[in-house]
């Protein structure tokens, strides 16, 4: 997990100890479990803002710091953050969205057992990312 820029030993320890379900659940399920999934506050004609609630506070606080660092040093998370800021979203909303994105990336990494590959994450297609060799070439 520490191969992802922004995730250090403290975040890794918090995720391993407080979130044993990591790698076993789908993206929506894991983000709801941690408490970074947006929840609607609507009833009838009443429309409210979406907000995060519940979940595991220790994991959420560890992800917060990891997301802050990743927004500066991880190109995938930085691109997500810049896109949301350009759309006019509030800073806290963009941070929580980056936390959720980082959690989903880590969940997928644990599930597949693969380390973070920056080239693969920022590539436009699989041939660029060296995941699938170009046609006519064998790996």
TrEMBL record:
Pfam families on file: Transposase_20 (PF02371)
Chain positions covered by the region annotation Disordered: 119-139
Organism domain of life: Bacteria
Protein name per Swiss-Prot or TrEMBL: Transposase
InterPro entries: Transpos_IS110, Transposase_20
Transposase IS116/IS110/IS902 C-terminal domain location: 2-80
